[in-house]
Write a structure and sequence with these properties.
Elements lengths: L5 H4 L10 E2 L21 E9 L4 E8 L7 E4 L4 E7 L2 E2 L2 E4 L2 E4 L6 E8 L8 E2 L5 E2 L19 E8 L6 E3 L3 E6 L7 E3 L1 E8 L5 E7 L3 H7 L3 H12 L7 E7 L8 E2 L4 E5 L6 H9 L8 E2 L5 H19 L4 H18 L22 H18 L1 H14 L4 E2 L1 H12 L4 H8 L12
Parallel strand pairs: 2-12, 17-18, 18-20, 21-22
Antiparallel strand pairs: 1-7, 2-3, 3-9, 4-8, 5-6, 5-9, 7-8, 10-11, 12-14, 13-15, 16-17, 19-20
Helix pairs in contact: 3-4, 3-5, 4-5, 5-6, 5-7, 6-7, 7-8, 7-10, 8-9
The chain binds zinc ion.
């Protein structure tokens, strides 16, 4: 996310649903496994086919091996119509938004047919033509596991858009991704190519025809920015075609969402270069490295905000980088004047509702903590560290502590105390370089 949006703060708790149990007669087959809860069962891959006209979906969920039977998925307010494996009904039981399956411990592919509803509070598929499921609303769109540490590969097909409209989405996400990374947008979209990076990645923009002026201003350096990150942070993992999609969030919503490889930028922000670069940077941090715990939110947003300024400094117009850093310094000064704002990095895992720490604090403190580390160990060493960190967590989740480990391994500098000072307390260090 680029900026906390009011709509997200107002997002309601996950919807419940009617309890239901499959009609399968378990007594007819001694081998039938009753529905068994296991919220840790690994989802290896998710194949989705979404019918926009019928408001239905089919999900093929590949479950990994486990020590015992059972699997649980989040299903929000989906209408679960059938659950099968190899054409045979799978026993299932639903408790509110959790679907428990009667499956064995061996790897298995489950096909789920379901209906879905529109959600207009940034908590599912919006009638305005976009999906937004961050942080834990994926279950309103498809059977899922919402914790960001639980990565899945994805395929997606969105069919039957309204006449004259195009559904914009990635057909595949080939590397493990958090459920909230997957999205689509539907509207009168026009595709513009910005060319290819040195590594061959094509950078594109999808927007409405009447947004051309904002697109031109906002994406002036986007190809160069993406190229810089590929060269300095490491190979991109989510496909060969990437870019910004104008998301018609409405209501004055600003910012973007890291739906790589086709991330969303609010239509109101399409002319703002920093938003495009910020969302692109999530391809490495937040998406490329997923969050180990929601408490590590500062790792994703701090890094994306650091690179938002850094990359504009590297490839943007003269003076634009200086202005971007000055804007962050001003935000920090404002936080300092208000007592530090809040703790950016709660010292727990899985205990905090991420919406309670979804303010500008993790963005600003996180970015300027990274700049403090950069100032301590030098820019070249910092760049080598971030590249090593990204490379070491290929398709995995990591937390702030893992970043501290990477800094120590690469540079020999122990950033633990600096991380505590910047991120784990309300007050802000007076020294903008790590001690
Ligand atoms: Zn962000």
């Amino acid at each position: 996310m680029r900026r906390p949006a009011l709509a997200l703060l107002l997002a309601a708790a996950a919807c419940g649903g009617d309890d239901a149990t499959s009609a399968l007669d378990a007594g007819a087959d001694a081998a039938v496994i009753p529905p068994t809860a296991d919220v840790t069962r690994d989802v290896v891959a998710t194949g989705l086919t979404i019918d926009l006209a019928a408001m239905s979906g089919t999900a093929v969920i590949e479950l990994g091996a486990s020590a015992g039977p059972g699997a649980s998925l989040e299903v929000g307010d989906l209408d679960i119509r059938a659950v099968r494996a190899d054409g045979v009904d799978v026993p299932f039981a639903r408790t509110g938004a959790q679907l428990d399956l009667g499956v064995g411990a061996a790897p298995v592919a489950i096909t789920i047919d379901y209906g879905w509803r529109y959600h207009d509070d940034s908590d599912g598929a919006a009638a305005a033509g976009f999906t937004l499921t961050w942080p834990y609303y994926c279950g309103n769109v498809f059977p899922c596991r919402s914790l960001p540490a639980d990565g899945s590969r994805f395929t997606l097909a969105v069919t039957n858009p309204p006449s004259g409209q195009t559904a914009v989405y990635p057909a595949t996400i080939p590397t493990d991704a958090a459920a909230y990374q997957l999205a689509w947008a539907v509207g009168p979209y026009v595709r513009t190519s910005l060319g290819r990076t040195t590594a061959g990645t094509e950078v594109v923009v999808w927007a409405y025809a009447n947004e051309a002026t904002a697109v031109t201003a906002g994406t002036k350096h986007l190809r160069a920015a993406f190229d810089w990150m590929e060269q300095h942070l490491g190979p991109y993992r989510f496909g060969a075609e990437v870019g910004s999609v104008s998301a018609h969030w409405g209501g004055g919503a600003y910012g973007g969402m890291e739906h790589h490889p086709l991330w969303h930028v609010a239509s109101d922000a399409m002319g703002d270069e920093s938003v495009h670069v910020h969302e692109a940077a999530h391809g490495w941090f937040g998406d490329g490295i997923r969050l180990k715990c929601w408490e590590d939110f500062v790792l994703s947003e701090g890094a994306a905000t650091y690179y938002e300024a850094r990359v504009i400094e590297e490839v943007g117009d003269a003076g634009a980088g200086t202005a971007a850093w000055a804007a962050l310094d001003q935000e920090l000064a404002n936080l300092r004047a208000s007592g530090g704002g809040a703790i950016a990095w709660p010292q727990s895992c899985g205990q905090v509702d991420v919406l309670t720490i979804f303010t500008r604090v993790p963005y600003v403190k996180g970015a300027l903590f990274l700049r403090a580390v950069e100032r301590k160990i030098g820019r070249a060493m910092f760049d080598a560290t971030m590249r090593q960190f990204y490379d070491a967590h290929d398709g995995e989740a990591a937390g702030v502590a893992d970043l501290v480990d990477a800094v120590r391994a690469t540079s020999g500098y122990d950033a633990a105390a600096c991380a505590q000072a910047w991120l784990a307390q309300r007050a802000i260090p007076t020294d903008l370089t790590c001690p």
